[in-house]
Design goal:
35% helix; 369 residues; seven-stranded mixed sheet; globular; alpha+beta; OB fold (Dihydrolipoamide Acetyltransferase, E2P); 3 domains; 12 helices; six-stranded antiparallel β-barrel; Transcription Regulator spoIIAA
Length: 369
Amino acid sequence: MEKIQFAIPLPGVTQKNLGLWLKSLHLGQVLQARVIDRSLSGNLILRVAGHQITATADIPVHKGTLLNLEVSGLYPAVSMKIINLLLPGMSLSNPLESQYQLLLPRQGSVLAPLLTLLEPAQRVNLLSLLGVKNGLLDSLHNSLSHFELLTDPKTLQKAILLSGFFLESELLRLVDAGGVLSRADLKGMLFRLLHRINQALSRLRTGIGSDTAPEILSSLQVELEGAIATITLNQLSACQVNERDGCIWLFDMPFRIRDSLHSLSVTIEREGTASQDQPESQEWIVLLSVSLPRLGTIEAELFLRESKVSAVFYLERERTFRLLDERLYQLRAGLESRGFKVSVLRCHQGKRLADGPNARWRQCVDEKI
């Protein structure tokens, strides 16, 4: 597979939420880029998720070509491998591939619309434009878990179940069994808010409202559509079998620390090597990534097979590294008290490196696991 590396945003071009979008990228995520030109230096100029990015790549592609990309590395620069390319005029016969082509250009940060909706300076204005009461945004805010509570397994499980990933399967279950869908489901809430915005825009375009209102709502409409597209792509990715005959699940879970909003990225990979007779021998790999105030970016790789567990932490800041490294013995004791056999438990200062599909999992794993 050909690889490309993001270089820099286009100089002199201001792009809203570009930094937030770059931080939201995670390994295994699939994106679509359109080649819009080549720079004088020979770099590709790509449009990705509404942003214009220059990228270094030694591939002969023409203007207008669509590239399906998978994030293969995040540090020191975002790097991707090309899954396939779609030349102008080519058609698709695979329905799943067609869905990818529709969603990839529209995906965005799951956190972005929440930050806009819950921004105190915008809140009153948005409520007025949408014609809704304050309770709608209060419900949205209260549905987001407190970060401290995510350390509880039951709260974390609930956050995953309400992340929007299981919306359609839950709706199918309710059709058969009856009941009411939880109003705390993130994707369901985003759909309801998008419906409200579509209605408000329809009213405003008839001439009712201020001249600036459509611009505010149109921007939020794009953010909501981007968040929904990202959650849907995460769902579609789980339908694919990876190169090791396993499956990967991706979750983006917004949470709150007091009045500020952040996002926890969770990637769960199940290896495909276990036999049907011994399902407990299946290997599970989990990648957690989060950026926290004063602590910086924290990444954790967890490996589990039967009762054997390993964990490797990557801490961006030296102070955070020392804090966690000095307390690893407490984590070891906690894991062992729950019946786990701890093989590897260590911290690294700096961001995690990844040079391919296997490198991210195998760097610091004890082969005895």
